[in-house]
Amino acid sequence: MGAIILLSLLGILVLYLGLYNAKSLLLPVSIAGLVGALVFEVLAWNSGAAPIYHGMVLFDNFALAFSILCIVVTALVLLLSQEYFSAISKNVAEYYCLMLFSLTGALMVCAYHNFAMLFVGIEIMSVALYILVGIRKTDFASNEAALKYFLMGAFSTGFLLFGITLLYGATGTFDITGVKNYLVANPTAISPLFYGGILLMMVGLLFKVGAAPFHFWTPDVYDGAPILITTYMSTVVKVASFAGFIKLFSYVFSPLHDFWTPVLLVIIVITLFVGNITALMQTSFKRMLAYSSISHAGYMLFAIIALGANANTSIFTYGVAYSLASVAAFAGLILVKRSHGSDQFVAFDGLAKKNPLLALVITVAMLSLAGIPLTAGFIGKFMLFRTAMADYHIILLVLAVVNAAIGVYYYLRVVVHMYFYPMAEQEEKLAVPMGFQVVLLITLFLTVMIGVYPNYIASLL
Amino acid sequence: MDSIIQNIQGIPLNHYLIFCSVIFAIGVIGVLIRRNVIIIMMSIELMLNSVNLLLAAFSAYRGDASGQVFVFFVMALAAAEVAVGLAIVIMVYRNTKSVDIESLSKLRW
């Protein structure tokens, strides 16, 4: 709880720093605050989990692990922001402030124990992002992305709320343990309202994680938003939404899994194919990453249908691997776009000659996203597939492996462009600022470390 | 307060359910088929208000106050959302001189 309070106060402090024009302090203060929040979360690790604040939030190890992941990824994103924000807008403080507010919402989604907190958390997370997506006020693509994101976000909130209301009508409580007790107490006489509630909440959350057939806003929004905001959206927001999703389905609704598993199975298959096949056809690196994030949402939904103790660990590992690789890939994209002004694959031609380190980091990130052994992404995929295997979802598994193979093709395309295509024209070496170097090395190190020594992260939860 | 609850309970719960579902469905259809952004936002408000009404009805029937408290959460956050949403609409209008969804179709796969 300390982290949530600290981060919301930090957002206000950062806003005041902007008011008094202390621009050089913004980044250090934000990073210091994030480190403080991290300390709060680490100190609460393993410290007996009971719901606090009248059963509103619960900081068990599951919530803490996902919170820590969100905080660390936000810190990495902020480290990339040094010259980025000031180049596209005058109001730099608002970026930091809104991102911190959004992170506060994400932590609430990770730790909710009451549907009120789930709703409030999702809203805090999203409302701050509506502004961030549209922060380039005169840019047409950014405007369109903001409007689409806002309309889809508000629309999906309506579904989520109607679902919560129906569950309340059936059970008379918003507390997730109360709802689960209702299911356990009368397994035969469950009100029909409850089934409708499950489906509506599922629709609302699938909109948020961007799974097909509710994915159509994702590519446009990811493409139109500033790259750094896209990084934040496709990592922190997605991971936090999945933490909320898996808590709801594999804890609260688990007694009814015969009812919702078939629905999710269909959605997973559609998501995997839509994400991967559309990603094949892209010529823009940014848009390819947007579609690949749809397919990764499909993989993460795997863990939800495979109930069991392993599900939390495997989805967390996958979240870590995916977030680190995405941050590295987007950081590379920012640098390339800065020197070329383009986010097409062609802009990556000959990058290995211009900057071998950057090319290496992007390669490792792509391998990790594709799930090649010795990277974190392989461990994540392996654990997900193993949990699905234990549940005998063989057909699903075959389809997922086919999709993983399709994924390898389009991820490696950018690697081919970097190593085997000649440079378009003779250019000077691509300079990598200090903040980027730190982030690239951290992501490279962690991706390889998790890939080589998976036991540390597998025994965490 | 007691007389209000009695009045609410005077109507069968199923009527509230059907009524709210119909309003919610009108909202969803409005979002899907209308082309004016302002009207889409009104439809979204309709969806949220049907939720509020249903929460209040359930709350009165169960004699449990938490449903009514939830209504306040929904109202507060809906207001925040609309404030941001209208700002976005104004920003779009300044650039395109239009509030029609069709004017915004530059991004396509």
UniProtKB/TrEMBL annotation, chain A:
Q: Which reaction does it catalyse?
A: a quinone + NADH + 5 H(+)(in) = a quinol + NAD(+) + 4 H(+)(out)
* Record membrane topology: Multi-pass membrane protein
The UniProt entry's GO CC annotations, sorted and at most eight, read:
endomembrane system; plasma membrane
Cross-referenced Pfam families: Proton_antipo_M
Task: Give the InterPro entries listed for this entry.
Answer: NADH-Q_OxRdtase_suN/2 (IPR010096), ND/Mrp_TM (IPR001750)
A GO molecular-function descriptor:
NADH dehydrogenase (ubiquinone) activity
Where does this polypeptide localize?
Cell membrane; Endomembrane system; Membrane
Task: Outline the extent of the NADH:quinone oxidoreductase/Mrp antiporter transmembrane domain.
Answer: 114-406
Query: Which UniProt keywords are listed?
Result: Cell membrane, Membrane, NAD, Quinone, Translocase, Transmembrane, Transmembrane helix, Transport
| Major site of localization recorded for this protein | membrane
Task: State its Enzyme Commission number(s).
Answer: 7.1.1.-
Where do transmembrane segments lie in this chain?
Answer: 61-80, 92-109, 115-135, 147-169, 189-207, 227-253, 259-281, 288-309, 315-336, 357-380, 392-412, 432-453
GO BP terms: ATP synthesis coupled electron transport
Subunit organization: NDH-1 is composed of 14 different subunits. Subunits NuoA, H, J, K, L, M, N constitute the membrane sector of the complex.
User: What family name appears in the similarity comment?
Assistant: Belongs to the complex I subunit 2 family.
Functional note: NDH-1 shuttles electrons from NADH, via FMN and iron-sulfur (Fe-S) centers, to quinones in the respiratory chain. The immediate electron acceptor for the enzyme in this species is believed to be a menaquinone. Couples the redox reaction to proton translocation (for every two electrons transferred, four hydrogen ions are translocated across the cytoplasmic membrane), and thus conserves the redox energy in a proton gradient.
HAMAP family per the UniProt record, alphabetical? NDH1_NuoN_1
Protein name, UniProt field? NADH-quinone oxidoreductase subunit N
Q: Which gene encodes it?
A: nuoN
TrEMBL record, chain B:
Its GO biological process terms? ATP synthesis coupled electron transport
Q: Does the keyword Metal-binding apply?
A: no
Q: Pfam families this protein is in?
A: Oxidored_q2 (PF00420)
* Compartments, as annotated in UniProt: Cell membrane; Membrane
Give the transmembrane ranges: 16-34, 46-63, 69-93
Entry's family note:
Belongs to the complex I subunit 4L family.
Q: What is this protein called?
A: NADH-quinone oxidoreductase subunit K
This chain is encoded by the gene named nuoK
